[in-house]
Amino acid sequence: MDTAVTSITWQLQALQDEAERTVWGSQNNGFRLLDGLDKKCAEIANLVSEFHPIQKRVVGFDKPANIYLVTELYAAGGHRNLLQQMVESLPNERHIALFTRPHTPDSFSFQHLKDLGVFVVAPNKISDLLARVLWLREKLCSLAAHRIFYLHHPDDAVASVSLLSCTSNLPCHRYFVRHSDI
User: What average pLDDT does this structure show over 45-55?
Assistant: First the structure.
């Protein structure tokens, strides 16, 4: 494996580990201070951009399309309810959920969204973090979305690095959605 790829892979894993420790290691008080992680995400995003330039291949849709960037959904979670309400409020548009973590077609997340008429896409379950970043960047930049809604979890380094490395290539409206289940 190339030295640059190895370096990015290790840095991305260290970032993911730190994000998980920061988010899940603190008290459940509804607030997370991710001091320094944004800078590390940006540094890794720059390395990813140098290593793998974005390919412009736009896939269009017959109706305005909304992309929902999602880490995962739980049966009793706020993201599930919020996403369902968003989809139901825009019945004449296309809806695509891009998961940042691997899911199987028989998982709760896939089934729930498919039942709502959402096209669900997830990375291969054997993909490492860097492969998922590259996959997600390509999807975000190639799907001609009208809107992108960021619904990822705060410990999702794949989502953060992917978004930071391709935001300038996303001409659509972007919405960062944060909520609390508390």
Answer: 82
Supply the pTM of this predicted model: 0.81
Highest mean pLDDT among 99-103, 130-134, 164-168: 130-134
Local structure of 125: helix, strand or coil? coil
Does residue 135 register a pLDDT over 60? Answer: yes
175 contacts 147 by C-beta, under 8 angstroms: yes
CA-based end-to-end distance of the chain: 44
Q: Which residues contact 31 (CB under 8 A, 6 or more apart)?
A: none
Cα–Cα distance between 162 and 164 in angstroms, integer?
Answer: 6
H or E element, residue 143: none
Dist CA 52 CA 71 (whole Å): 23
State the Cα–Cα distance between residues 43 and 8, nearest whole angstrom: 10
User: CA 171, CA 12: separation in Å to the nearest integer?
Assistant: 26
Question: Phi and psi at residue 36, in whole multiples of 5°?
Answer: 85, -20
Nearest-angstrom CA–CA distance, 150 and 98: 10
Q: 106: which strand partners?
A: none
